[in-house]
Amino acid sequence: MNAVDVRTVGRDDLVAQVQGLLADGFRVALVAGHDDRTSLAVVYVLVKGVDDSRVELVVEVPADDAWVPSLAGLDFATGRWERALRDQLGVEPVGHPRPHQLVHHAHWPDDYHPLRHDVGQPEPGPNTGAFEFAPVDGDGVFEVPVGPVHAGMIAPGHFRFSVVGETILQMKARLWFVHRGMERLFQGCTPDEGIALAERVAGDTAVGHTLAYAMAVEDALGLEVAEQDRAARALLCELERAYNHVADLGMLGNDVGFGILNVHASRLRETLLRLNDQVTGHRLARGAISIGGTSLRSLPDPAVIRHVADEAAQLVDIALGHAVVVDRFTGTATLHHDDALALGTLGYVARASGVDTDARRDHPFYDLGAEFAVVTETPGDVMARFTVRARELACSLTLVTTLTEHLAGNLGSTSTAPLEPGPARRSGLSLVEGWRGTICHRVELDPTGHLARVAIADPSFANWPALSVALADTIVPDFPLANKSFNLSYSGNDL
Amino acid sequence: MSAVAAVLVQLCVVVAAAPGVAGVTRTVRARAEGRVGAGVLQPYRDLRKLFAKRPVQATGTSAVTLLAPVLLIASSMVVAALVPVVTTLALPEIPGDLFVVVSVLLVGSVAVALLGLDAGSAFGGMGSSRHMMIAALVEPTVLVAVLALSVPVGSSALGQIVAARLDHPTTIASPGGLLAVAALVVVVVAETGRLPVDNPATHLELTMVHEAMVLEASGRDLAWIELASWLRLTVLLALVANLLAPWGVATGAGVVALVVAVVAVVAKIAVLAAGLGAVEVALAKLRLFRVPELLAGSFVLAFLAVTAAYLV
Asked: Which residues contact residue A216 at a Cβ distance below 8 angstroms, ignoring those fewer than 6 apart?
């Protein structure tokens, strides 16, 4: 893991600095805000995949004159981070083209900024309406509101479709109905206590977020993790990717009425969840990763893994051999390569549109060897996202087998973080390829060794806008299929 | 027994069997997929539960919401009385004519489409619009297929068509007859909202057709609607069964003949319902705008059936 190049920059110099780094091939992975009581700090984390370079630009902002020059014109994703920061920390992005609410619930007061140190609970007020849907006018255009409460067992999100007949002209998603104050909950915890919180950032990405959190803390404390423990972490990551991908393959089948695919994929998912339970003592693989170590209860049975891999390959063959399923998947909700790149998408969504990004290769914490290859497809439609998942699943299960052989009975070690006093600002950064895409955590420790701030970037934050873009020219009854093919997290997005 | 009594027996059999048809279809599908399923009797339990509940009407709904379920169940009952399921005897007052049957079915379709619109929810509107699109494409096929079936018999009364097939079994295997039944099967699938046209098992509001229209219905109203849609499925399956294998249908009103007919038709419907469930396992839902292509195909079959009926 490369050291982070931390630079303190002034507000007037920020735009030029970021422009230079973006031109050099960096991308903005995270924008975090801090309330240091005397002043605020905004940290721009830029990373580059080619040589794993990491740069942090720290901008000091006076609390009573809280603004930063907006970078929305340079990078779309940064523009959304700025809106999130405006809501949460009250730092105004000056020159932002759409400085609307993002994270704030409509019933929260406008001047309530939960990441400021002196706030209490918000007083729910009337709906401020600061945040209207763009009206779409024209002959035969009507609006279809969906959610936030849905018929299926899914998290709350409101989708507003503007449609003509069955064709979608525009879809706006309004999320952030389940804000838990996650980042604030970390503050004041010891690094070890933070593990339990990190495991709950997103239920289906327990390993990804816990690993990212642990690695960020280790980076801040300068801890080295033993090779065996890193191998065990890589193993857990692939197990998590496998159970999620196999479930998605089935649910994509279910959404086109091909239920048998879902039934058998669910059975395979259950097999993998029980395997997680044997390996870690928890079906979602919680409790194995600690700061500085990883401890397993047992290693997965290679015979079970081979069996799951064979059956999953059969299911994929059945799905891709079904004319109607292929017809429903092909050409549906296409996310073009240029859009995927411009929006800063991550994970399988980006890879299905031909964007070659994978933190396992770009920001490795463990060398996965020759069996690992980044999977990309070019069309960017539902079929491409299905195929990318199918190929990644096969790759992940192979990696699980080789990692199990490599560990050769070694179950790793548990360790705890030393709670030692240190310099005022100790920060750590990590990038981990969770099953949805690249997760970024940035941790700051206070002088007593407690957590001062944890900033989290789930790939869903980057990918949600891409869903709206991909829906252009898609018909309304194909939306659930398109949505499932993205399968974005609500809780990872809304911390 | 008179024709009226025979038709009453038929009505009772169809109403009693309708939830069972849904149950058999679901159970066969579940077993074929490797699931246990809720059992054949689950639709009966659902009905018992729903009939015990008072319906809740959305604010702003009109009398349509009150009347549509009644109209739907009433029209489905009339269809169940007119189609030769147990007996080919027709009520003296109402002709068991296919055109009448189609029209009565359409009354129910329109009632449920209006129900979808009445609550003013976007899903209901979308469901109604899709339902009407499908209904508009189904109607011509039905009428042309009926014409093909009625040409050899010289009558469009369903009872007489089935009776004629019973007397001359060779006509069943005639090209015209087979093509017409094939066209009818596609139409039945579309009309009753089965795969690949509509997915009765989905929870995804945006993809629904029939389910979207009845999203706002609850309690007793929903029970009537559910029973009516199962009735339509049962009656149409029985019609297809009796066109393909008319043996066992009672042509008179004798008690023995009726008992035999009831046993025969229950067996035939059970086989078709199980077949429907088994076939659905292998089907996926078509993209909405591919549905017209499927229905156009069935229209071509019906048209060929008419041509064949005149030529052969």
From this structure: A428, A429, A430, A441, A442, A443, A454
